[in-house]
């Protein structure tokens, strides 16, 4: 077994998307090889309806998959193929844009006006860029969960983990998408296949992720449940942790426990030509996509 080194820890950055939705971006529109096959990750969390109600009106996608995971509130969606639906708390939508689709996503808060969810973009390999678009809307009750003896819980959204298999199927890049909660003071190790690129995104509580240079992951200033933890080195809310190569990730939960996403996938290792919501392999393919968008043939280009 080999511990994955922590290559980078950084905070998600406030930004604005759609018609004026305030959100935090952990990565995106940077070096696409950094977390290949993943291109972008947004945390849309707001307490004020005026910060999200304008939503994401009609816009195109081609060449990627978008993965939306809702924690609170709901998201209403409509697309150019006639699909409509609503994602509620705990639900997931995995949209394969493929050859091209136009859609809109309109967030709605819960009774207290709160809205929280995530959107991840996954790249498609060249031989699947122009596949037929499809949706997989998955209700919360369909997502398996498992609880370990120490109180650690895992929701398996995609992939296989601890004997459970997530409900989303037929996706490129062999992804694994886990929602993990580790109780206060618990130190836990999670296996990830070596061939995958991996990152964690902390969105509740705090934790220290062990590095290869400090394999215990145990730090020095405060004792939590019998273990010493240095509060200065804990990753907290809206923190991205990018891992190097290995087959294990070890996390030491902080004084209030921690909840984070652990996401990994097989790199595609292909050229990327990217502008806005369209991702192709070459500049010529990208230019053709926007030409079709302008002349009205964009959603008829599947083959």
TrEMBL record:
Fe cation binds at residues 59, 61, 103, 105. Binds 1 Fe cation per subunit. Keywords: Dioxygenase, Iron, Metal-binding, Oxidoreductase. Its EC number is 1.13.11.24. Signal peptide: none annotated. Residues 21-121 form the Pirin N-terminal domain. Residues 177-298 form the Pirin C-terminal domain. Its cofactor is Fe cation. One of its GO terms (molecular function) is quercetin 2,3-dioxygenase activity. The keyword Iron applies. Belongs to the pirin family. This is Quercetin 2,3-dioxygenase. It comes from Ruegeria atlantica.
